[in-house]
Amino acid sequence: MSDFRELKQKLYSESVVAKIWGVASSKLNDANPPTEMPEYSFFDDKGYTYRDMEYWTCGFFPGSLYALRERSVKYSDSFPGSKLHPLKLEHAAKWWAESLKIEAPRTDTHDLGFIIAPVFIREHELTGSKESLDILVTAANALASRFDETVGCIRSWDTAVNKRYNYSDTQKDYLVIIDNMCNLDLLYYVAKKTGDLRLSSIATRHAETTLKHHFREDWSCYHVLNYNKRNGEVIAKFTNQGFADESAWSRGQSWAVMGYADAYAFTKQKKFLDAAISLADYFLGQLPEDGVPAWDFKAPNKEVRDVSAGMIASLGMLSIYESTKDKKYLDSALKLIDNCTRFAYNEESKLHEGGKVTLGNFDTILHASTINNNPDAPKQLANHGLVYADYYFLTIGNKLLDLEVFN
Fold this sequence. Notes:
Layout: H1 5-11, H2 14-24, E1 36-41, E2 49-52, H3 60-74, H4 86-97, H5 112-127, H6 130-144, E3 147-148, E4 153-154, E5 160-161, E6 166-167, E7 173-177, H7 184-194, H8 197-213, E8 224-228, E9 234-238, H9 250-267, H10 270-285, H11 307-324, H12 327-344, E10 350-351, E11 357-358, E12 385-386, H13 387-402
Antiparallel strand pairs: 1-2, 1-12, 3-4, 5-6, 7-8, 8-9, 10-11
Protein name: Glucuronyl hydrolase
InterPro entries: 6-hairpin_glycosidase_sf, 6hp_glycosidase-like_sf, UG_Glycosaminoglycan_Hydrolase
GO molecular function: chondroitin hydrolase activity
């Protein structure tokens, strides 16, 4: 792995810890835990834009703290414990996660996997916490309540409205987005821990229905499908965040890669592994010369990138490698991570003794992500730092340690 020495240095640098800790420590002296979470930041803003706790991305910053906590416990040699005591990190992780607990019973969102799993799966795995498992069980059952037997999927959005379309009749319109594949791990995890096979059956049925309808012959991916709730037939296939309905939104493709790789890891159903491999191969085949994904593979402006798509797809490929031991997907993942990191790694922050931080001019680890550059979007956001790009970067670092890749 000598070709990736620079990547290894960046993955486990003190700067990575400093970026997360610099943001986290600013709220530790507040009277109450945070009820808003970081989402994105631009160079000229010099600071995160925050979202209310119920927003779908709000699990990722506490999840980043938990990813570092996991690293400090399992791989202390790759964590700067002399400058930031693990007990201090544990307190910060719990402080930032506290307000997430009330989100677990929600039945108005499909994003409970994103909101709840990054924190509470790790907390349960690290400590055996009954409270964390109870939160996961509550969230999994709330998510399962959005499943419809006729459609065979978990409802993603209740409505979808922009300049081009208006799908808002919940008695007929049943909207499913590809991102939803990455909420299924919450159902699979709780099923495994509790023996509630109803949850895993719902997850598998959703994955099977999505496999039938969400992909083109070349394994590129639609973003949104609208099913007829009354009979399960597909009404429309379209995009909400990609360039066009028949284009290939790169982050949607990456959600699919990771979602099917994880579905295979839980079920061992070969059709899910085959799908993950085909989806990954399509993703790799669309990369430009510098190896950094465009925000949409078919968009005319290839200068707008989405590094978050690269991180998510890479994590999916590492899961494929873990399941198959096919070095193609390990090598492809490492190359993709390396290219994205070379392109988008921000100015280093400094971690000083006692956990003091010099954050610098940018408070995310990576830049060059794109939330939504769709021409009809109410608000376009492109080429910025993004909380879940950093979260998956940290998760990748831990995964590579789990796989002993750099040994």
